[in-house]
Amino acid sequence: MYCLHYKMQLLTQRTPDFIPQTLWPPNSPELNPVDYKVWAIMQEKVYKTKIANVDKLCDRIFNAWEELYQHVIGAAVRQWRARLHACVCLLGVDTWNIFCD
C-alpha cells in the first residue's frame, strides 16, 4: 500500500496533468490500451484462419504478440491520456463511439 501511495504522490507532484486515481473509471475497455488497440490487432492475426486446437491457438497468440510492432503499442499508450481526459470531461459517460479506431 505504501508503494502505491508513494507512486501516486510522485505522479501528482511531477506530472502537472496527472488525473488522480479517484477520477479514473472503474472498468472501461475503451481506456485500456490492450483492449482498444493491441488485442484488436492480435485478434485479426490469431483468427485469420480456422484454429485446429488449443495448442495451435496458444502458438498463434504467442506469434501474434512477437510480431506486434513496438510503435503500435506506443501509439496505443500515447492515446490513453486523451481517452482518459475525455471520459473525465464526460463524467464517465460511454466514450466508445468517440474513440472508434
Features:
mainly alpha, elongated, 4 helices, about 100 residues
Report on this model:
With 101 residues, this protein is mainly alpha-helical. It has one domain (25-101). Helices cover 60% and strands 0% of the residues. The chain has 4 helices and no strands. The chain has helices spanning 2-14, 33-46, 54-67, 70-89. Helix 2 crosses helix 3 and helix 2 (33-46) packs across helix 4 (70-89). It is elongated. The N and C termini lie far apart (36 Å).
Topology:
Blueprint: H1 2-14, H2 33-46, H3 54-67, H4 70-89
Major sheet characteristics: none
What is the count of distinct domains? 1
Number of helices: 4
H-E string: HHHH
pLDDT < 50 stretches: none
Q: How many strand segments?
A: 0
SSE class? mainly alpha
Q: Percent of residues in beta strands?
A: under 5%
Oligomeric state: single chain
